[in-house]
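In this section we walk through a basic example: taking a raw amino acid sequence and producing a predicted 3D structure, encoded as discrete structure tokens. The instruction is simple. Fold the sequence below.
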Amino acid sequence: MNTLVTQHTKELDYCSSCPKLCNFACPVSLADGRETHTPHGKMTLAYLLATGRLSPTPENVEPLSHCMACRLCTLYCEHRNEVGETLADLRAELTRYVPRNARQEAMAQSYHRFGQAYGEDLMPFLRNLVPKARQVSEATLIYVPTADVVRQRPEEIRAFFDLAETEGLDSIALGESAALCHGLPLWQAGLRDAFMDHVRRLCQSLAGARRIVTPSAALIYVLTHFGEALGFRLRHRVMFVSEFLGAELAERQPPADAPRWLLQEDPYVTRFSGLSKGIRDFAQQHLPLQVDDFAEAGEAAWPICGAGDFRFNHPAQVRWLARRRIEQALALKAEGILCTDPVDAAALSAEAKDGPEILTLTEWTRRSR
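The resulting token sequence is shown next.
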């Protein structure tokens, strides 16, 4: 693994010798409290594996999967060490030494067959959510919710097309590739060849669209950072759903007594894709709410699910993070949580039996109209 050591010398050296100053920012550390799963613990393990001081057995490799790649440790690191990227690169390198486990094998096969991780064709279910008039194969302005939203938060899709009907947005239709995944679970799991094959097929399926609207910041991230590396120029054609709705809908200033909601954001795919400011501007200009960040309210800005394979591998930690977020919102006396990621909204809703209301940007916009 000499190439990996050379590529990530600084990260491996600095993190394995660090006094754990970023542990507080790591949602996984909060969720299970195990030293092995802190950024320092995982990077120390990575250092030992990469330098050959520890054998790459399945048991030794497993803790590396306890990373959401949210980059919050990087944000708080004085040296800006890329922990998530280093761990993902090591997992990719280790596929040469450790056979795929059953979960990885099933994921790779599902992506090859269906274009996503859920092991079944989701397009029939998706078509039942969308008016037939919006299912036009030759449309050039298309809506692509991605497989995660289809499976986890169909309310988002219904709300979007209800808005399209009530606001007269007649030109947008369901994309033929609407139930495909962005592919980041493959990337984070270290299945790089399968990931790049998937990204190529995904980009090819979208190449004919003039405009692509999506509630998935992860899709925008993949098209920008990986699709363009393959020669596809799609970033200028893809719009986050709030960007599209903000351009189409009239502004509405919130009333003075607007209810207070807290914004739940996936810091990796929204902030590092340049979407955060536009999301906040949209919330301020189009929703009758007082919207605050969890970070502004004194709480960490971590995701609930993440865009990679963490949510598939460690559902108990995802549930813990969702419950903790709801407890924070209640303590801050917020009436609800406004989610940029529909998958986070689904995870929060599953735990918010008596807690604050959970809605996505699209769902709240539909309510306010």
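Looking at the output, two observations stand out. The longest strand covers residues 260-264. The CA atoms of residues 70 and 155 lie 25 Å apart. In the next section we compare this with other chains.
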